[in-house]
Design a protein that fits this description.
This protein has a domain of about 250 residues: Rossmann fold (3-Layer(aba) Sandwich). The chain contains 18 helices and 7 strands. The longest helix is centred in the last third of the chain and has 48 residues. It binds guanosine-5'-triphosphate and magnesium ion. The site of magnesium ion has 5 residues, from α2. Small GTPase required for proper nuclear import of RNA polymerase II (RNAPII). May act at an RNAP assembly step prior to nuclear import.
Amino acid sequence: MGETTQAPPPSTAEAGPSTGTAAEGSKKQPVVIICIGMAGSGKTTFMQRLNSHLHSRNTPPYILNLDPAVSHMPYSANIDIRDTVDYKEVMKQYNLGPNGGILTALNLFTTKFDQVLGYVEKRAEDVEYILVDTPGQIEIFTWSASGAIITDAIASSLPTVVAYVVDTPRTTAPATFMSNMLYACSILYKTRLPFIIVFNKTDIQPHDFAIDWMKDFEAYQAALNDSGRNEHGESSYMNSLMSSMCLVLEEFYNNLRAVGVSAMTGEGMRGFFEAVEEARQEYERDYKPELDRLASERAAKTEADKKAQLERLMKDMNVSDQSAGGSSRRRGGGGGGDNPFGPYPMNEREDRYYDEEGADDIDEEEQDAIRRQEEEEEEAAHAEELGALDVDEPEIGGMPRSGPNGSRGEAWPRPV
Ligand SMILES: Nc1nc2c(ncn2[C@@H]2O[C@H](COP(=O)(O)OP(=O)(O)OP(=O)(O)O)[C@@H](O)[C@H]2O)c(=O)[nH]1
Ligand SMILES: [Mg+2]
């Protein structure tokens, strides 16, 4: 069944295990394929088909199951949400219905998704494809915060593609086709990821009609006209709405690729993997640079925040660059180069009491204390020259002459 195909270039297979030299950029990252689709569209069966197809090519994928409610899985997943949360237990404990239980289970799982991503990233060296199955109720994944968090987390780490699985036999009516396309459109614009529409179950219903409708507005219009007239031959309100929407969606159709497959028989796998390869290139071309731009914007903002905080701190301490350079201080030395607080050593911060401008504000007593302090310091400096500071000096009045780091601030209480 799984037809032999060399969809992705053979270089990937070669580059995989053989290149241990980590030549930058030579090893392709694996592509993550997230399968999304309406309930019963065949996501899980499609996952199984991809799995067996990739095994037949000797490139087994890494599989994540995010559907907590699946009862039978035809493949074994490397990471399975059911191993972490039991959605039935969640239903009981939180008093929820089935959909609420599934959503809450997914939310709980999302809180640990950084760990999951860690595992995925570790295995990214050894695999070419990472497959992700999503819950049956599409809105649980596509319209929930956790779905968005998971998708964004994966997509910011690895090339990611959305495979939107459509139940082709159930889309033959123009109205259902249109609602499926609208849904696909909303997912595309929400995730902004490269998108592949996978018309599944082509063993029952070939998908050519859908491709015609997507490419040719008039073909869709004709189908609408055939299907939706009332007994008087008038077009219904629904039909006019559909035909307007079809026009709107033209732009959307241009932005995606559509393939037909049968998850049951394996038909169309080659076309699908070709589309995946194209989508990967689109990710590298459009999505990645945008992602990098956002990341560098974030980094620049963090840097600017840090700088602003530092400036605020300096302002609070009244050590702006201008005052440091311009004021006439008694001691201008002190090598401000590496000192984030300005050109004076930190233990001379009290020097601002000596500022001529500020001196008037200090009372006599305070000035005396400062003078005494200064004398002590000059003595110490002199002693240092003579190497006298190597000797343990007795404490004066219970106060050590200097603090553990030689800091005057610690050695002397601030004058009151
Ligand atoms: N004939 C045919 N049947 C298919 C195909 N793919 C899936 N099915 C059938 O469609 C039904 C639903 O398939 P699933 O794979 O469970 O669909 P799903 O989207 O995972 O379903 P939920 O997770 O419950 O939403 C099953 O009975 C499958 O056997 C296909 O390509 N051809
Ligand atoms: Mg399923």
